[in-house]
Amino acid sequence: MSDSDLPETSATRVHLRFLPPDRPGHPGEAVEEDLSACARTGDVLFLACDETAGIERLRLTDDGWGDHQHFDLAGFVDLPDGPDNEIDIEGLDVDGDWLWIVGSHSLKRGKPDGASGAAGLERMAEIRRDGNRQFLGRLPLVDHGEGPEPVASDGERRVAHVKFGKSARLKAWLAGDPHLGRFLDIPGKENGLDIEGIAVRGNRIWLGLRGPVLRGYAMVLEMDMKETGSGHLKPMRIDGKARYRKHLVDTRGAGIRDLALDGDDLLLLTGTPLAGDGDTAVLRWTGAVACRESGLHDASEVTLAQALPYRGVSDNPEGLCRWDAGRWLIVHDSPHPKRISGARTEYLADLWTLAG
User: Fold this and answer.
1) pLDDT in tens, 54-66
2) Could you list the residue range(s) of the whole structural domain that residue 229 is in?
3) N or C: fewer beta carbons within 10 Å in the chain?
4) Which CATH number do you get for residue 215?
């Protein structure tokens, strides 16, 4: 597979090698076909497949990016729906010696799956809540000589996450919100609540929402996290009131598909908030880190860092992370066929230089 097999763009490319499906340690899904998030630290790249309940780890070796390892999140956390149901991981970030992970928190509408008439209507009336999707937490990272890997504990550092319950804690905190509350019972990809990105600096986290999008503005939720006496994570109250700041950002009608910090700016990987295809881009929200109050951020604060190529229903940009001093990695869900080798173990990812 050569770089010239893909349609020409200004991006350079990097080869990522995954385990063959028949090899021990493979997660059982074709992860290279459903990549949803990425985060690099040194010579290690973490990736998520939104159809599994775990994390993929690649390492830079003499032969390039490979040495694929899969880590089941159930090995660290007691998941409410068990180890075999997806978490729908849509955001990863590394901050210091921590790997942060967020699930979509979205509801899921049933698919017709070939049914028509009354049977098809009945299936599409079903709306499911998957408990595993409500995950928001962090894992300690430890380097045993071959790069950082997640562990359950390292001295006083331990896995911590927002406590699971009969309903999602995050949704409970948002229930009375005048902008978000009405969208909590609407499925993802239908402009309902759908988290698709996380960025972290210290105890501050930013969550990007694919939906809802309101009059062309997408939402970023910001929280100051603390660890409770029981070892769980919980956002602190701000001025004794809400547990989050709410930023409505002019994304020209697009939803957020991932987030990444670039100095004091926040990069927004954007695409359609609904099912189907549409234009995608990386936007730069200038000075986002300095913003400590909820509010509206219009086009004067948001610039185009990179328009991304449109390839129809395939090749949807889903994950964004810093690659090196001048370039950013973007990985795709439903990738263009030319991204994957015939053996289905090698994936061709894009590296972009962003404006700003």
Assistant:
1) 999 999 999 899 9
2) 3-352
3) C
4) 2.115.10
CA 188 to each of CA 128, 211, 272: distance values in angstroms, whole numbers, following the listed order: 11, 7, 12
pLDDT of 116-128, one tens digit each?
A: 899 989 999 999 9
Report the 10 Å Cβ neighbour count for 312.
10
pLDDT of residue 312: 81
238 neighbors 231 (Cβ within 8 angstroms): no
In which residue are the tokens 């309101």 written? 214
Helix or strand run (H / E) with residue 67? strand 64-72
Strand stretches in 178-315, DSSP E:
194-201, 204-211, 217-227, 233-235, 245-250, 255-262, 265-271, 280-285, 295-297, 302-308
- Amino acid found at 346: E
Per-chain mean pLDDT for the chain:
93
Lowest mean pLDDT among 59-73, 83-97, 331-345: 331-345
Residue 180 has which token pair?
Answer: 């978000």
**pLDDT higher than 90, residue 155:** yes
C-alpha–C-alpha distance, residues 43 and 220, integer Å: 30
The helix (H) or strand (E) run that includes residue 322 is: strand 316-322
* pTM reported for the whole predicted model: 0.95
Q: How far apart are CA 102 and CA 136, in angstroms?
A: 4
Contact 199, 266 (CB under 8 A): yes
Give the Cα separation of 282 and 102 in Å (integer).
20
Q: Which of 27, 143, 40, 132 is nearest to 92 (CA)?
A: 40
Joined together, the tokens standing for residue 187 give: 């499925």
Report the C-alpha gap between 54 and 316 in whole angstroms. Answer: 21
Short-list 198, 236, 239, 242, CA closest to 98: 198
- 73 — phi, psi (to 5°)? -65, -25
Strands 295-297 and 245-250, sheet pairing? parallel
According to DSSP, the residues that pair with 102 across neighbouring strands are 91, 136
Structure-block tokens of residue 89: 């991981």
Per the structure, the count of domains in the chain is 1
Q: Of 144, 163, 168, nearest to 69 (Cα)? A: 144
- Helix residue ranges, H only, 78-224: 117-124, 169-174
Question: Cα-flanking dihedrals φ and ψ of residue 276, to 5°?
Answer: 105, -165
